């Protein structure tokens, strides 16, 4: 019997520029996306009818019915399976947990049954195409235009979520401007990690201000991250509330995560590598 496992890595928007809005209300994005070496885990086994079990430390509140993106992905690819989802990522957190689960399910079911992943996965969510691509990418359009990026260095990061779930549509609705500048085209090259960090600091997450207006604790998360030794940049990912801090070494990232976990027992804190090979 073929059992296939797949990692559903956390998605991090290192930049997230909102550059316009379509007539249907969806926003045009311009985002540099990378993935963490930390995430959920999907295991699929052949079965005559699809069944989903959700376990893991972050399983509470995750839908187990047809609303789960794992089941939507299984229906889209048309493969039945016994699917186990182990949740380690907080939901509704701006790190694409559900989208990454959907992409991992498509990959795992494709391998298990020997069927191709459907070309059009955007119907599962705007973040699913980039999660399916899986590596550092330039994401544009509403999320369907994904260009893999070489030359993005691996980074040491700490991810922090203060435990507030954020509804993505509400954050987009809070934008005061929707025609903000895009990243430069072509993107610059970054010979050293320090060049990349310096450039990142000049970019933005346009959803950060409306997210802070809705959930002021996000500003506290950013300030707390910036206050830890070695933190070079702190920014929110996606529509929040998860923020990332970038560090100059694995040791400093790990020390910061240890200190934050101790000082803020209610916060979800993880030291991880982004865009590691
Ligand atoms: C904002 C981003 C940035 O990567 O990340 P998250 O905060 O979800 O992690 C994504 O675009 C989210 O992707 P995803 O969560 O898959 O979005 P969807 O389910 O397709 O859409 C949820 C809602 O977000 C808004 N939305 C989403 C994408 C987009 N380009 N414009 C939008 O306005 C719409 O209100 C939509 O109804
Ligand atoms: N597999 C899943 N994991 C987490 N949330 C899911 C999943 N499937 C559906 N959802 C729903 O999707 C919503 C958005 O969750 P998620 O994809 O984790 O957040 P975000 O879009 O902020 O990155 C959640 O509120 C939850 O109800």
TrEMBL record:
Reaction(s) this enzyme catalyzes, per UniProt: 4-CDP-2-C-methyl-D-erythritol + ATP = 4-CDP-2-C-methyl-D-erythritol 2-phosphate + ADP + H(+)
Enzyme Commission designation: 2.7.1.148
Pathway annotation from the record: Isoprenoid biosynthesis; isopentenyl diphosphate biosynthesis via DXP pathway; isopentenyl diphosphate from 1-deoxy-D-xylulose 5-phosphate: step 3/6
Keyword ATP-binding applies: yes
Keywords, alphabetical: ATP-binding, Isoprene biosynthesis, Kinase, Nucleotide-binding, Transferase
Domain annotation GHMP kinase C-terminal: ranges: 202-260
Example of a GO MF term: ATP binding
Residues that, per the record, bind ATP: 90-100
Summary of the function given for this chain in its UniProt record: Catalyzes the phosphorylation of the position 2 hydroxy group of 4-diphosphocytidyl-2C-methyl-D-erythritol.
HAMAP family in the record: IspE
Protein name: 4-diphosphocytidyl-2-C-methyl-D-erythritol kinase
PANTHER family: 4-DIPHOSPHOCYTIDYL-2-C-METHYL-D-ERYTHRITOL KINASE, CHLOROPLASTIC
GO BP: isopentenyl diphosphate biosynthetic process, methylerythritol 4-phosphate pathway; terpenoid biosynthetic process
Residues the record marks as active site: 11, 127
Positions of the GHMP kinase N-terminal domain: 68-134
Family: Belongs to the GHMP kinase family. IspE subfamily.
Protein origin, superkingdom: Bacteria
